Amino acid sequence: MKADIDLDIGRETFASGVLPELIAVLHRSRPGDLVAVFGDEESIGPELETWCRFTGNPLLETTLEKGRMRWVFRCGAVAVPAEANRPVGSRLWLYTNFDCNLRCDYCCVRSSPTAPRRKLGLERVQRIAREAAELAVKEIFVTGGEPFLLEDIDEILLACAAAAPTTVLTNGMLFTGRRGESL
Questions:
Q1: Tell me: the pLDDT tens digits for 101-157?
Q2: Cα-based distances in Å from 30 to 48, 111, 119
């Protein structure tokens, strides 16, 4: 299937920042355009399929070409449910870290006290917040793991709040001491 627009995402995933690239492609495309996304991470497929469904851009084809994945979607060809009628990219979810002080069996990101301490970091969040403001993001949601395990959560939240209204998803267990004061 021949595409109107090609997007090579390399090894990027939704966790590492592919969303702004997809949003940029949508901004420069017209309804009905075919977009081919080329990537090296097969694991992005289910997330891309979900993104396509939520944004009303049907995923038409998934193939393996020369050792790389290729996904093709059509821009704007599906009616979006009324409750999801908001501009693509108007909400930004930041998973600031994946460690948590609790071990809930229903956790969708498998956070726990023993999870590896992966985090976005203050500088990256500040850059993302600046880019979010430039892209006219309307809402930022900060979550994790447990965001309040981060020593610089106050600065992270200030950067996000400067870009757009910000909501923090937390278990609320760490609102003591310096964290509580900074909040």
A1: 998 877 777 788 888 888 889 999 999 999 999 888 999 999 988 999 998 999 999
A2: 19, 40, 36
Burial 111-140, CB ≥16 within 10 A → b, else e:
bbeebeeebbebeebbebbeebeebebeeb
Residue 151 CA to residue 156 CA, distance in Å, equals 10
Residues linked to residue 86 through DSSP beta bridges, in sequence order: none
Token readout for 48 is 């891309």
Write the CA distances from 171 to 39, 74, 98, integer angstroms: 35, 39, 13
35-70 tens-digit pLDDT: 999 999 988 999 999 899 888 899 999 999 889 999
Contact between 27 and 47 (Cβ < 8 Å): no
Closest C-alpha to 58, from 84, 32, 39: 32
- Whether this prediction's pTM lies above 0.85 is answered by no
Nearest Cα residue to 43 out of 74, 26, 7, 18: 18
Whether residue 18 contacts residue 12, with contact meaning beta carbons closer than 8 Å, is answered with yes
- How far is the C-alpha of 21 from the C-alpha of 53, rounded, in Å? 17
Measure the CA–CA gap between 88 and 137, rounded to whole angstroms.
9
Give the whole-angstrom CA distance, residue 65 versus residue 70: 7
